[in-house]
Specification:
Strand content: 15-25%
Structural class: alpha+beta
Order of helices and strands: HEEH
Number of helices: 2
Distance between the termini: 28 Å
Radius of gyration: 11 Å
Shape: globular
Strand order of the largest sheet: 1-2
């Protein structure tokens, strides 16, 4: 899975909406009342949303 759900499932998503640029991502309230991204079934796993996520544990920041 190369989409934002890997971040959500890891429990590190804060709902910041950095990935919200993608037409395949919408935000819905989770069981705790916070908004989290949800990926539709047309996602092609391009990974652009993960690259935008500041909480991706594999992210390499350009300093």
């Amino acid at each position: 899975m190369n989409n934002i759900m890997s971040i959500v499932n890891a429990g590190v998503c804060t709902g910041c909406n950095a990935c919200g640029f993608c037409e395949h991502i919408s935000f819905q309230q989770n069981q705790y009342g916070f908004y989290s991204p949800v990926v539709d079934d047309k996602c092609n796993n391009c990974g652009k949303c993960v690259k935008e996520c500041i909480y991706d544990p594999n992210r390499e920041d350009d300093d």
